[in-house]
Amino acid sequence: MAAAASVTSLADEVNCPICQGTLREPVTIDCGHNFCHGCLTRYCEIPGGDPEEPPTCPLCKEPFRPGDFRPNWQLASVVDNIERLKLVSLPDSAEEDICQEHGEKIYFFCENDEMQLCVVCREAKEHRAHTVRFLEDAARPYREQIQKCLSCLRKEREEIQWIQSRENQRIQVLLTQVATKRQKVVTEFAHLSQFLEEQKSILLAQLETLDGDILKQQEEFDFLVTGEIYRFSTLIAELEEKNEKPARELLTDIRSTLIRCESRKCRKPEAVSAELGQRIRDVPQHALPLQRKMKMFLEKICFELDYEPAHISLDPQTSHPKLLLSEDHQQARFSYKWQNSPENPQRFDRATCVLAHGGFTGGRHTWVVSVELAHGGSCTVGLVSEDVRRKGELRLRPEEGVWALRLAWGFASALGSFPTRLALEEHPRKVRVSLDYEVGWVAFTNAATHEPIYTFTAFFTGKVFPFFGLWGRGSSFSLSS
User: Fold this and answer.
1) CA geometry: angle at 379 spanning 373 and 382, to 5°?
2) How far apart are CA 31 and CA 169, in angstroms?
3) For the chain, which residues score pLDDT lower than 50?
4) What pLDDT digit, counting tens, does each position of 467-481 carry?
5) How far, in Å, CA of 431 to CA of 455, rounded?
6) What is the pLDDT of residues 259-315, one digit of tens each?
7) CATH assignment of 2-97?
8) CA distances from 190 to 26, 118, 413 (A)
9) Cα separation, 477 vs 370, whole angstroms
10) How far apart are the C-alpha atoms of 376 and 287, rounded to whole Å?
11) Rounded Cα distance, 7 and 78, in Å
12) 449 phi, psi to nearest 5 deg
């Protein structure tokens, strides 16, 4: 390897300054610099400049006589020796720079044929009329194109890496949500299991008590019935015996005997008392707490598996001066009288709107807006991006970072790129707004009937805030989770 490096270093010392290749038929000019004879001849033939002026050395710019080239035989011998050493000591990869046809070094490039040429190839008939450049000159525009391609590819790679990072973050958020919901399911089912065991014990104890009371009443019934049967059997036996006697004996005390039998009232005992029967019929009522608990459990587990309740409050720093906020910032009422609100960049000055505190940068959240509208009033609920326009006219549409639903007197509209009037079975007075940041959903449902109203799809990249607008004297809204 050291020998190859030495040969390469020597070869660099005997390169032609014009073609950057190994000197071929080296000649020396007046200033002492050496060039290939062919390169210097072509250099002198290049048109331009004053034809009366002698050409100048490509290196030092000293003038020289075009016809006064002195062959440098000693340098030519050195070059030949170096070439032989290169063939012996340089690795096979160095042979790639040699023309396979002529054995000369390649240092030209034909742009017409896209071929690499040696000196002999360059002088061949088929390439004389072609555009031929030195390798580095020919490579320069291609290097520039490669740099442009590299710049575009690197930019696209960065975009893909950013998407990968963003999606990985979304996946981690979703995994965290799933883990949280898994824990909630385990906890809620554990509570339900404990409650069911308690209810099971209570119901079984009540049924056990009923079973004992039924058996007790059965014993009392059997005792009474047995006594009655015995007494009736005794009277029957007495009358049968009386009936078998002769007339004289039959008539003896016959009236008292008949009166005693006729006046005997049959008591008809009941096996199950009315009170016990009512208690048996009331058994399903004891399961009503279980029924209510199961309904609450199903509603709660379905809700918690869906969205996280958002405990939001209105931000007075963003509220339009015509909105009156409650002290707990959970309610707002429209007023034509302007409030004394200090001006700040966050406050809406044209649209009678207000935002919630905090905002969201991920997750699944839900909140409920209860709306009370006067005749001609309207309320807008939804979500906005952090950079939504606060000053001047606010266009309520997704392109402006607003995903909202407008409730007016008797109708509702989805405020898309073009407002869409919605056909609803029931005009909602309570609207549930649900956000899925990672998936990109803003869904509206009737909180009372659970009827879907409208769903926006979006791509969120920054913080978003719950958004509320109000218009009309006597119109108001309030928040709940």
Assistant:
1) 145
2) 70
3) 1-5, 90, 93-94
4) 999 999 889 999 986
5) 13
6) 777 766 666 666 667 777 777 777 777 777 777 777 767 766 665 666 777 889 999
7) 3.30.40.10
8) 97, 86, 43
9) 5
10) 48
11) 12
12) -105, -10
Instruction: Say how far apart CA 82 and CA 5 lie, in whole Å.
Output: 12
| E strands present in 326-376 | 331-334, 353-355, 364-372
> Which residues sit opposite 36 in a β-bridge?
26
**CATH number for the 309-480 domain, one of 2.60.120.920, 3.40.50.300, 3.40.50.1820, 3.40.640.10?**
2.60.120.920
**In 421-430, which positions are buried (b, 16+ CB within 10 angstroms) versus exposed (e)?**
ebeeeeebeb
- Residue 97: how many other CB atoms lie within 10 Å: 17
pTM exceeding the 0.85 threshold for the entire prediction: no
| Backbone angles phi and psi of 258, in degrees to 5 | -70, -40
Q: Interhelix angle for 73-89 vs 2-13, to 10°?
A: 150
Cβ burial of 435 (10 Å; 0-12, 13-18, 19+) is: buried
Those residues with Cβ within 8 angstroms of residue 33's Cβ, 6 or more apart along the chain or in another chain: 17, 57, 58, 59, 60
Question: Cβ distance 125 to 119 under 8 Å?
Answer: no
From the list 410, 349, 358, the residue with the least C-alpha distance to 379 is 410
Which residues neighbour 354 within 8 Å (Cβ) at sequence distance 6 or greater?
Answer: 314, 315, 316, 318, 319, 320, 323, 325, 332, 348, 468, 469
- The predicted pLDDT at position 88 comes to 58
Burial of 106-121, coded b for 16+ CB within 10 Å and e otherwise, reads bbbbbeeeeebbbbeb
What is the total residue count of the chain? 481
Answer whether 113's CB lies under 8 Å from 103's CB: no
Residue written as tokens 């266009």?
A: 395
370, 393, 368, 358: which is closest to 465 by C-alpha? 358
Tokens representing 431?
Answer: 């609207």
Q: What is the DSSP string of 145-199?
A: HHHHHHHHHHHHHHHHHHHHHHHHHHHHHHHHHHHHHHHHHHHHHHHHHHHHHHH
